[in-house]
Amino acid sequence: MQLFDRAAISAAVTLDQEALNAVEAGFAALGRGEAVQPPILSMAIEEANGEVDVKTAHIRGFSRFAIKVSPGFFDNPKRGLPSLNGLMMVFSAQTGLVEAVLFDEGYLTMVRTALAGAIAAKYLSRPDSQRVAVLGAGEQARRQVEALRLVRDIKAVDLWARRPQAAHDCAEQLRAQGLEVTVHESVRSACADADIIVTTTPSQQPILSAADLPEGVHVTAMGSDSPEKRELETSVLTRADAFVCDSRAQSERNGELKAFAGSADGAAAGADGEVPFKVFELGRVIAEGQRLRLTPATITVCDLTGTGVQDTAIADFALSRLS
């Protein structure tokens, strides 16, 4: 068994095209029905404002599979500690023996999450997209923009966050990468000219509404990944010409589709909470070459809750580079 720490992993794995291809291949395998992906095991630790998720998947034909343990303790920044942590255990898919422990402290989750956002934009946004609005100012906000540049010629960023200082700090980091960045005081102002909108917050109340969406925009929502979180008003989902998620079951439990189990903002669900529009899964969009953007004015929304397939794909990729 091999043990790798974050320094070694981050030196070997970056937000690059090969890593994107590896995660995209995992999505496609899921879309073809070539993956076994059990439900997420989640545990809340409410008194510490924390949660722990355990995710795994086996992709047919892969020699390895991974089990990821991912704690998120959201008061940690007040203690000078990171909010996210964790590790991935990698096993042989032939023998079940442990091949490696990737003590990445959440780094590989950051990478595969950012790459998933880029993959969603690759298949759903306008090819000429150059301006992205980012709601939120944590590490994932910056990383989403960096990953988007692998698939779109992003030149300008409009940024909004609840904490103005965090927004300005994030803006300076993005400007250092040669981007034009504007910090906004409202969500609507930030989104007004966007080609792509990315929501990257742990919000428990919707922050984006249909009235904020410009014509032809693509929205990637990646912050809602547990039952109590929500970033999009149901009006965003019903306004979209195409709604896509990484896993419908996960979106209904942890993501934006859970709003239709009992909408708080007045959107009409069908009988027994039935979703009143067609739901696509990103893996099938990729595997089947589904074309959902039919005109430049098409509005698309993708809800990313994070899947075990992504974790196995990035862990396998990381170990191949480390070895």
UniProtKB/TrEMBL annotation:
Transmembrane segments: none annotated. GO terms for cellular component: cytoplasm. It comes from Onishia taeanensis. It holds the Pfam family OCD_Mu_crystall. InterPro entries: NAD(P)-bd_dom_sf, ODC_Mu_crystall, ODC_N. It comes from the Bacteria. This is Ornithine cyclodeaminase.
